[in-house]
Write a structure and sequence with these properties.
The chain is of the alpha+beta class. It has one domain. Strands 1-3-2 form a three-stranded antiparallel beta sheet, covered by helices on one side. Helix 1 crosses helix 3. The longest helix has 32 residues. The chain is globular and about 50 Å long. The termini are far apart.
Length: 94
Amino acid sequence: MDKTYKTTDFDLVTTLTYFGNLVKGIEVNPKDKRATFYIKQDENLQNTIEAYFKKEIRVEPQGYRQSYRYVKNLLNDSIRDIYKEEKYEERTGD
């Protein structure tokens, strides 16, 4: 099984996605809609995370915006799935 890095930092996830790291999954707490992102580990992941927190990262603005939209869409899809599950449970009584 692939190793994953987990975080709740949306901007970090956007940065990691910009640099080519894959979002393996998103877990959203149905009560507060807080998301935990799971990122596939690779040889450059830790270096990118360290550079992010040291504020050493430089990005191309349009590419970063594209990564932001991608991660936002993943998150919105996950929240939408929870909403559908809640509505289904209300209808069926499960």
